[in-house]
Design a protein that fits this description.
By secondary structure, the protein is of the alpha+beta class. It has a domain at 75-185: OmpA-like domain (60s Ribosomal Protein L30, Chain: A), CATH 3.30.1330. 36% of the residues lie in helices and 14% in strands. It has helices at residues 2-22, 67-71, 97-109, 127-147, 171-177, and strands at 75-77, 83-84, 114-120, 155-161, 179-185. Strands 1, 2, 3, 4 and 5 form a 5-stranded mixed sheet that branches. It is elongated and about 75 Å long. The termini are far apart. The model is unreliable at 34-49 and 67-71 (pLDDT under 50).
Length: 186
């Protein structure tokens, strides 16, 4: 009985401390002290900020892609069948590895082309999670292709996440949405 009362008293004290700590509301910043507040930018000369580096992707450590890579020009789809994945997985199924080997053979026979790997997900999960999962799927296929001898310079990856998935799809349709597509870039 005493241990029950001690536990109850302990819970009471911890709850009271928790409630006392939550009663304080954060203070809002004074609008005159923010960039968006009254008189914003009044003291800044437009030439004082160098925006050149802000628009240069290489200055931020980003790789500059050829504009035609994602614009749809000189792209061929359907040369190699997509690689399908299990739910919430980026591991290439043993049964799907032959498709990656087929893509490697195609690239070896056509040394002037590159490939864009598009990672896709089904409709379940948040957009952010699915973008990451699509990226992991495309990267898994890229890594396997590199192991099979393709230069990483010939492979681009992009995640489409669930952007092209059928929302509320049946399990059969959702299985088709979990894939990496090979897009040949000429």
């Amino acid at each position: 009985m005493k241990s029950v009362l001690r536990l109850t008293a302990l819970e009471f004290v911890s709850t009271a401390l928790l409630l006392a700590g939550c009663s304080k509301k954060p203070q809002r910043p004074n609008p005159s002290q923010t960039v968006m507040g009254p008189g914003a930018g009044a003291g800044l000369a437009p030439t004082a900020i160098d925006t050149g580096d802000l628009l240069d992707p290489s200055a931020m450590g980003l790789e500059q892609r050829d504009a035609s890579t994602l614009a749809g020009e000189n792209q061929v789809r359907g040369v190699v069948s997509p690689v399908y994945f299990d739910f919430d997985s980026a591991a290439i199924r043993v049964s799907e590895r032959a498709k990656v080997a087929e893509a490697v053979d195609y690239l070896n026979q056509n040394p002037g082309v590159r490939v864009l790997l598009e990672g896709h997900c089904d409709w379940r999960g948040t957009t952010e999670y699915n973008m990451g999962l699509g990226d992991r799927r495309a990267s898994a296929v890229r890594d396997y292709m590199v192991q099979l001898g393709i230069s990483p310079d010939r492979i681009e990856t992009v995640s489409k996440g669930d952007l092209e998935a059928t929302e509320g799809a049946s399990e059969e349709q959702a299985q088709l949405d979990r894939r990496v597509e090979f897009v040949i870039l000429q």
